[in-house]
Design a protein that fits this description.
By secondary structure, the protein is mainly β. The chain has no helices and 11 strands. Strands 2, 4, 5, 6, 9, 10 and 11 form a 7-stranded mixed β-sheet that branches. Strand 4 and strand 5 form a beta hairpin. The termini are far apart.
Length: 122
């Protein structure tokens, strides 16, 4: 059974940092792209980033480029998401999801984590 279990969200002040993780099981982790998608209050799903199976290729939305970093440890079947210089507009539920190829849209992800809330507020 495919599982993506998220952890590490929370409340942080503007300019702060968080490092949510996503632990995977039930599939060959290193053979899949893992994506990062968010949903802000009252808005639709927004693609944020993804990373290829070996971790050598990463992609980011313009809104997070230079502030967020996606990485993975295939020995631990875990995805990491370093979020720096956080802004109030980054407040959202953040999801990890798996796909067989690179995505810059939400469509095509076939399994999703439960989501983790990130709130940026003073």
């Amino acid at each position: 059974q495919v599982q993506l279990v998220e952890s590490g969200g929370g409340l942080v002040q503007p300019g702060g940092s968080l490092r949510p993780a996503c632990a995977a099981s039930g599939f060959t982790f290193g053979s899949h792209y893992i994506g990062w998608v968010r949903q802000a209050p009252g808005k639709g799903l927004e693609w944020v980033s993804d990373i290829n199976g070996l971790g050598g290729s990463t992609y980011y939305a313009d809104s997070v480029q230079g502030r967020f970093t996606i990485s993975r440890d295939n020995a631990k079947n875990t995805l990491y998401r370093q979020m720096n210089s956080l802004k109030p507009e980054d407040t959202a539920v953040y999801y990890c999801a798996k796909a067989i190829s690179h995505r810059t849209v939400v469509a095509g992800y076939d399994s999703w984590g439960q989501g983790t809330q990130v709130t940026v507020s003073s």
